[in-house]
């Protein structure tokens, strides 16, 4: 295996161990020694791959951003022409997002919970990323407005944030479930129902 591949694999192993440890102890209460002990490595080995535990947050943020982008890139915001097509598209995207985080709840917890309060700079980056995701969701909604299957007076920006807020809340619930993968269908169906049929 090439050296670059080995380095990436080792970085991922350390990030995974850190995510588990942060989830158990909290980001601020976790030290490098805790992460190293979990992996059975020395401090020196850790520092060959990451500068500090804050560096792990940056790594996870970048990795999750890429993987979220892959889920979203599988769909074209302008491809749906009817409400029924859009609903099916939402279900596909929702399933992809829940599977992404359901498969690795510790990474999801680090991304959505522990990392948010790490420090001001990281919180700002996280908020910027949420804004970018809202813009993506807004593109799907705007397509519906433009094609006439969503109301012409829909506030796309507010609606996009609200939809993403539902997803955020659902992910927080799912990653705490003992079997997150089993809950995916339930949560996707619930969010889709609220989006397309309302509660009443």
Automatic annotation (TrEMBL):
Annotated SUPFAM superfamilies = Homeodomain-like, Tetracyclin repressor-like, C-terminal domain
Return the PROSITE patterns for the record: HTH_TETR_2
Keyword Ribosomal protein among record annotations: no
The protein's matches in InterPro entries, at most eight in alphabetical order, are given as: Homeodomain-like_sf, HTH-type_TetR-like_transc_reg, HTH_TetR, Tet_transcr_reg_TetR-rel_C_sf
DNA-binding region residues: the ranges are 31-50
Q: Which UniProt keywords apply?
A: DNA-binding, Transcription, Transcription regulation
Pfam families from the entry?
A: TetR_N
Can you give the residue ranges of the HTH tetR-type domain?
8-68
The answer to whether keyword Amino-acid biosynthesis applies is: no
The protein in question is named TetR/AcrR family transcriptional regulator
UniProt source species:
Svornostia abyssi
């Amino acid at each position: 295996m090439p050296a670059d591949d080995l380095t990436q694999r080792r970085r991922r192993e350390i990030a995974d161990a850190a995510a588990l440890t942060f989830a158990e102890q909290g980001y601020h209460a976790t030290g490098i020694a805790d992460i190293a002990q979990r992996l059975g490595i020395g401090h020196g080995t850790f520092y060959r791959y990451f500068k500090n535990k804050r560096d792990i947050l940056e790594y996870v943020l970048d990795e999750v951003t890429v993987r979220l982008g892959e889920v979203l890139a599988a769909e074209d915001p302008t491809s749906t022409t009817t409400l029924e097509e859009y609903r099916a598209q939402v279900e596909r995207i929702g399933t992809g997002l829940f599977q992404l985080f359901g498969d690795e709840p510790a990474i999801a917890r680090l991304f959505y919970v522990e990392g948010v309060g790490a420090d001001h700079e990281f919180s700002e980056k996280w908020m910027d990323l949420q804004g970018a995701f809202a813009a993506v969701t807004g593109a799907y909604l705007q397509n519906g407005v433009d094609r006439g299957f969503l109301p012409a007076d829909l506030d796309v920006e507010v609606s996009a944030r609200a939809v993403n807020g539902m997803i955020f809340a659902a992910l927080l619930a799912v990653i705490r479930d003992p079997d997150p993968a089993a809950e995916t269908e339930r949560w996707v169906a619930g969010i889709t129902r609220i989006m397309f049929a309302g509660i009443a």
